[in-house]
Amino acid sequence: MLEHAVTTPSGALALAAEAWAALQGDASALRHLSLAGHGDLPSVFPVTDLAAASVGVAGLAVAGFIAQAAGTWPAVQVDRRLASFWFGMSLRPDGWSLPPVWDAVAGDYRAADGWVRLHTNAPHHREAALAVLGVAADRESVARAVARWDADALESAVVERGGCAAAMRSTDGWAHHAQGLAVRAEPLVHWQAFAPAMPPPRWRADPARPLRGVRGLDLTRILAGPTATRFLAGFGAEVLRIDPPGWDEPVTVPEVVLGKRCARLDLRQREGRQVFEAMLGQADVLVHGLRPGALEALGLGAERRRAFHPGLVDVSLNAYGWSGPWQHRRGFDSLVQMSSGIADTGM
User: Fold this and answer.
1) Interatomic CA distance for residues 281 and 305, integer angstroms
2) Dist CA 235 CA 208 (whole Å)
3) Contact status, residue 315 vs residue 228, Cβ threshold 8 Å
């Protein structure tokens, strides 16, 4: 039986205060945040506290934006039950069905000395895993092949091949792992400010649609990044999601493109980069979740991006953190859960 974590409004408020401080928010603004509602997501961790805190901090940021224009802070109230729902799917198909969340190979497998997860939804990630295992895309064949490997060795081999895999570690194992130690030493949010080199934008926040007039470029994939940019669009921002030719996320696209425009652009081609650079000059916010060095390799590093728009708000997320031996490793939420002890604790 799965035990539920004990969650409380005070726990959510404490998490919100920690996140708000990491974002360099004024501590006095927290008095405008309150929680209501009941109910918890089934987890051994206080996930609903995290959900409510995350929604609350995002709401405070928008409220602060409104306050700059209106002179007063609006109240921010978070319903714990609704926040929990928003951490799941917010879209229910009517008259059609979503495809399976996972492809036929993706999932958890028992290795010779533990468990390992293969993330194979992207064709090139699936090909990498199958090449290492030397089998076809058949789940039973994959399971037999995985059983002959030690979990850490298979993880390393798949990653070296350009794929995505994670051995299941305990929280204690992660705490003593080189990457776990590196992440623990990092701040919750890395923040770097530059002197304004452009006049402030001409638009003013409308309390009804406070982000109307904000232009955002979305270079994110599953799942945190697209959710963040969907939040911007929900409050009125004009968000353009840019995908490379051939990329597809059939199960998540209907959920994460709400309120956005979508386009295809190949940044590996000179013409594509020129179009992107022109859009950078008109954007207010860029959100990307590419591995460190990926944009630099395309000639679109941070300094280059600021050259096109010195006032750009440039936000990025990296699965395994910004330091340590795994900082360049491909990662998804389910893999990080395996690596960090979340899956082991909750299994």
Assistant:
1) 9
2) 8
3) yes
Distance of CA 345 to the CA centre of its chain: 22
Cα-Cα-Cα-Cα dihedral sign, residues 275, 277, 280, 282: negative
Alpha helices in the chain (DSSP H): 9-22, 47-70, 80-86, 123-133, 139-146, 151-160, 171-176, 178-184, 224-234, 253-256, 270-280, 294-297, 302-308, 333-340, 342-346
- Is the pLDDT reported for residue 315 higher than 50? yes
Neighbours of 268 (CB within 10 A): 11
Return all residues near 139 (Cβ < 8 A) that are at least 6 apart. 104, 105, 107
Here the tokens at position 241 are 């999601």
Instruction: Show the tokens assigned to 18.
Output: 């920690």
Q: CA dist 300 to 272, 293, 342, Å?
A: 12, 9, 35
User: Given a cut of 60, is residue 121 above it in pLDDT?
Assistant: yes
Per-residue pLDDT tens over the stretch 47-65: 999 999 999 999 999 999 8
Confidence of residue 8 (pLDDT cuts 50, 70, 90): low
In this structure, what token pair is assigned to residue 293? 């060095």
- Asked if residue 181 has pLDDT above 60, the reply is yes
Mean pLDDT for the chain overall: 91
Residues 259, 90 contacting (CB under 8 angstroms): no
Alpha carbon distance 344, 169 (integer Å): 7
DSSP string, 8-71: -HHHHHHHHHHHHHHTT--GGGGGGEEEE-----SSSS-HHHHHHHHHHHHHHHHHHHHHHHHS
Residue 191, SS3 per DSSP = coil
Specify which residues 33 forms β-bridges with. 76
Radius of gyration of the chain (CA): 21
